[in-house]
Every structure is written in structure tokens, then in C-alpha cells.
Amino acid sequence: MNKFIFVSGGVCSSLGKGIAASSIGALLEARGLNVRMLKCDPYINVDAGTMNPYQHGEVYITDDGAETDLDLGNYARFTKGRLSRANSITTGKVYESVIRKEREGQYLGRCVQVIPHITDEIKSRILSVFKEENDTDVVIIEIGGTVGDIESVPFLEAARQMIHEYGRTNAISVHLTLITEVGSGELKTKPTQHSVKSMQEIGIQPDILICRSPVMLDEATRRKIAQFTNVDFDSVFTSPNIDTTIYEMPLIFFDQKLELVLLKKMGVESRHADIKPWNTVMKHFNARKGKVRIGVVGKYMELHDSYKSLFEALFHASLENEIEVELVKIDSDTLEKMENADNILGNNAPGGRVNGILVPGGFGERGINGMVNAAGWARKNKVPYLGICLGMQIMIIDWGRNVLNWTDADSTEFNPNTKHPVVSLLEEQVNIQNYGGTIRLGVYETVIEDGTHISKAYKEKQIQERHRHRYEFSNQYRNEMSASGLKLAAFNADGTLVESIEWPNEGNHSHPWGVGVQFHPEYKSKPMAASPLFRDFIAAVKKARAGYKE
Ligand code: GLN
Fold it and tell me: What is the reported pTM?
């Protein structure tokens, strides 16, 4: 089976195109198909790695170390299909390879143009997702941007050509639009009609419309939309505003039989649908009792998307623990002075004391001291703590400064001249002078020590998690750190890098649950299978909260 589904959007952005595409993927998987998801991004950056999280949300990392758009994170949470470098296409990547081929003389003297050269490059990249895994049934291609944007024209043109070449049973167009409400709740379909017209001008007749709307569309409205757009009445669906969770969307589309209509259009026999995992997610969601407050201390706190996978992983953990997680987003700059900690984290905090602290990944010097203070506060007050990547390095710095009393303990990322470089570049540790772009990206094996929180969480000795960092626990301090009580909880495969540390469970510095990991477990977390570390962090928070008297 070689099927393509192109998902485009109209009227305006932020309609939930990524969630709609992912939900379609989830439902086709529930019907037994092997689905691969692909994102086409019209921006000119080659990848998202160089973009500020404030501009574009988090950078999502794949197993093979690609730094991609956060939409791939949605795909990973909704579907099982493998995601790699090939699953993210940008205008930058497409032009980069066409220009390279031109320089190499591969176009044999021809004039190189958007059509056919750029569109051919896009098409061959879409096809390569098929070739990567030979059991692929369907590739779902999400086209970023809104129809009418200059930037997305080549991608839509490639889609038009593929629909023509492969035929409309093999290449389907799903178009997402907005139904607006005016006055006293009157629903307006005109923007949707115009959006479909824009698609038709490009030469694509949408097969399926998904209308984002404040409420479920009634039959009369759907008939009207169908009449104006040449779309079959049974192919007009609603994506209603919901106040539950995005993970209800597959069920909402399932109730409308969206995937059945899609299968019929593709000429694929419908098999038994297994949507039990999604029902279980909603069962957990509705069973949540009580609430814990998690202080997330970082530096891109104003934009929720900056830490998208992290917040999703906390939500998955809240589902599995059946307790609500309230995110308390704290800009680490405000914790620069330790005296502030009680007013921001403790009993005097506006919404009350936080029950757990998470310090996420990050780069650069700003806000570091505030994070160190947050870790120190959690350690002394026996508040559960999870440190991810930078958050683990922060634990090391706090331990150096406040337990070992090396007041200048630091990472060489923030203070290259410190006498106590407790976190440093591996190259510095072995005295190599010319270190280049040595970021450690993608999946690496981690070997876990017995008797640790992390071994209890994963229940496995060897795990595979994704990395994105340069700096490391400095091996020269291994002895002093562990002699003073800090647990070295996991290492890389050859034992040369410390991959996880924990605050001790007994002795002077006894603490209920404090774990730092150099990798990013949030990227693999799913609504029906929370990351084991996030799950156990929230379980520890729940337990600590129950024992704490306000
Ligand atoms: N800046 C740190 C490093 O490069 C941490 C990176 C991260 O948290 N992703 O090692």
C-alpha cells in the first residue's frame, strides 16, 4: 500500500493542524495500518536547532539526533511510527540540497527552477519516508503555514502533483479551516468557503474538511459547507473547542467516523478498531483526584511551547498517578537571591507551597544562580526534585557550592575560570585544546546502578534515551562527590560519563527523591505510557505531599 494524506490549513494558524494530523495517524494505527508522519516547514532555517525557543517553541530531538520542529513531538505522542531526520522537511533543507546539486553540475546545464526542481526535491523526500521503512502503509504529510502564504506554495504544488500522479484514492487532501462565531453565537462558514477556493486555485480539491469550531456543527451547516466546497457531506467534520485534553481528539474524530471515511476514500478495507488505549487515557483523566503543584524553574517560562514535551510528560505522569498537576512556572531570575525562595517556592508563595521542583534543560548563563537556589531549597526542604540535563548540572553545582563548600563551584559553560569546574567539557577534562561543535545529540545507551530511584523507575539495567548537551559531570570530582553522599546513579556504556545523579536516601543529606539525568526522558513520554522518571517523580511528590503538614 502506498498512500499519502496531505494535511493543510486555511483561514489562520494555530487551529490544531498538528493535533488533527496526529489524531488521524492514531486512528489509522488503531485500524491496523503502519503510519509515518512527516512535517513540511516553510521556513528557511535548515533545521530548528538554531531557533530561539521563544520564537518557535521547543526543539524536538529524534533518535538519530535531528533537531526538529515541536510538531514531531506531537506525532511521537500520538503515533508509533518511527521518526528520524527524514520526517522533517524545511524550505532550507530543500534549497540547500538543490543548490548543492546545481554546484555539482547534476542538472546538466539546465536552468534550475522552483517547478520542477524544488518540487521534485520535496516529492523525493516524501517518498524517502516510505523507503526508510518498508512496511509503511500511509505517510501523513502536514504542510506548515496557511494556504495563501507565499512560503508554502512549493509544498502545496508538490502535493498537487502527487495527487495527480498517484490518483485521488492514493493521495488524499485533508484541509483544516476555522468556523467563526459572530454576534449571538451565529456560525459563519464564509472563511471556510474562501479557504477551500484558495486550495482549488492551486489545483487541489480537498477530499476531507475538518472545521475547527466553537461547537459541533449541525447537519444543516455541514450540508451548506459541502455544497459550497465540492466536498462530500459525509466528509465534513468538526474539531470542536474542548476543555478536556488534546488526547481526547482521536476519540472525538472516531465518534464522527473520520477514519472510516478516509479508509473508504483510499479503498482500504476497514478492520477492527482498537481504540482502547485512548479510552484508558480518558479514564485516567477523569479519575484524577486532588492536585500537586510543580514548580518548573527555567528561563523561557512565558511561552508554554518552549518546554512543550516536558509539560506533556508531566501531564502523562499526572494521568498515570491519577492526580492533577498544577504547573507553577517560575522564571529562575526571580530566585537569584536565596531569601526569595520561601516567598516563591515555600509557604509564603502566592498559590501556596510547591510540592515538587523540576529544572529543565537550557543553555547560557542567564538565570543559573536562581536554578541553583531552587535545587538547594528542594534538597534542604526535602521536596522531590527532577533535574533534566541542565537541571542535573545544577544539582552538581549546588552540591559543590553548598555541601562541599566550594563557593565558586560552577560549570565552565558559565565560568570558564572557576577553580572548581564541577561540570565541564569532556575535551577540557582530557586537555584537548581545539574542541569543535561537539554537541552530543540523539540516542545513547545508559547503564543504571542498582538500588537507585532511576533503576526502580525503569526496571531495566540498560536504557536508551535521547541527549542534547555539551557539558558533562567532571570526572575528576567523582570521588569527592560520592564520598560526601551524592549518588552516581547511571553511566554511559563505557563508564566514562556520568549520566545520572541522586541525592542520598540516608545519612546527613537524606532526601526522599532527588534525581538528575543528563538525557531528556520527556521526548519519549506518551499519554498511555508516561516516562518512568516523570511517573515516579509525580508519585514521590504525591507521597511527600501527603506526609507534609501545611
Ligand atoms: N547547557 C548544557 C550543556 O550544553 C545543558 C544542555 C541542556 O540542558 N540541553 O551541556
Answer: 0.93
